[in-house]
Design brief:
- 54% of the residues lie in helices and 6% in strands.
- It contains 21 helices and nine strands.
- Helix 13 (234-241) crosses helix 14 (248-261).
- The longest helix is centred in the last third of the chain and has 20 residues, at 378-397.
Amino acid sequence: MFEELILEDITKRKLTLFNLLAYLPDDYYSINFLESNLDFSYSRVSYLLELIQQDLDEINQEPTNFITDQGIHYDRSVSYDQYYQYLITRSIPYLLLLSIIYYPQDTLDDFCRKNFLSKASVIRKSKSLNNYFKQFNIKLNISQLKLTGEERMIRIVLYALVWFTSQNANLPDVGLSIDYEKVQNNVDPLFPESRSYSASKQIQLLLDIVYLRVTNGYFLTETATISAYIPTSVELSKDFFGAIVDNDAVLEAEAQFSALLLVITPNFYSEKDPRFYFLEHYLEIEENQATVLFKEFWHFLETTYGFSKYEHRVIYGNTANIIFPITILKKAVPGVLTANNNSNHIQNKYFLELHDSFKVFFRKISKRKNFSWLSEQIALLSIAFALLMFPSWEKLKNNKMINVGLIAESNYLLNQHLINFLDELTFVKLETFTENYSDFDLIIATSSCLFPKECTASTFVFRYSKDNQKQYVALYQMLKEVQNNKTAPRELS
């Protein structure tokens, strides 16, 4: 997601070439062949291959038979993801991030000396990172490697950049005095998913960042105007902050921020999540911009689209986890709402329907007094909520089965894969074709010659061939189109 920010152009080209090799059959290939499949010149492909050879040798810690006399041979000993992680964790922007977090006393001179780099190279290659910080009103002093701005946002941005690019790969071990297990035990009752492998790594990274920022003088001195709906416990927070914070105001502000981190992403998965109770209680006793926006938006979803907090509890919780952070910080959390902006779902008709409707809703709210800040977040919020809700909205709209008739040779060996494919689709009722074609929404035949001449139903020809995979994709798209057309558009009440 942050490749454009972290990787240089030449590194992106290496990944493009490596990705091509990963998808090609295991064989030997000439440079001419690779050139013909890429928008690169012969000399560029040759140069990139030499660089990849050097990288593979370093990864494997021994010479790799990549560039051979027979041609280029990718032996799959290093996967695309492994190579991607290798390039990410050796990029200058990523190394700068780790230095800012884990070696806060280092200056640019220190960084260059440790990594055998020139100042000019580091400054040039960190411009995209610097520009990204500016989007969140964060200023990078490149000579001192210091960040200034709203401290909450600085921590969240640092976390997002490291996590979404590397998932904690190759983090430095600087011997922090953090009892991760004790903090984990405090988090468990509030966030059961915290014990999952991924969540525990994310929590560790957040703890590292907060600990190092606080111990180097970058602590929070005031609480935010709006708190998260998770109750703040100053006493519990002492298990983490007790040894590094001796100011009550700082302790309260840091405890409040810790509670916000538990709802910083749409991370509801279970209808039994204990945070539902905290959310409902908070909505009953508090009135602020977050509660007003959440209540009005959910009422809109109930009355316009038929969503219910009892039947759609996970969506209800995740709606809160999108609205609360953006209202508290007055800006979208980096990486959280933008990860799926280029998703293929954006072309789905139900996604588009919700997206356009949500834009109108948030635009109206943004014109109110004290909600003008929302105007800059409308696009991201509309995409995020459309992505969150369109699968359920599609089910609500398309709750009818479609009847499919099959006309095929009487040969089980030929038909079994097609039949199994159709049987696995929950919205398809498959039957053997009868002469009463009006009983069917779609008729599938293995030849166009098998369709009755007077047939008026939708039809699809599935001809057994080596290209079955593309036919299955086309068939699924046809089935969904028939289903969408069968169910008349309606609003739920």
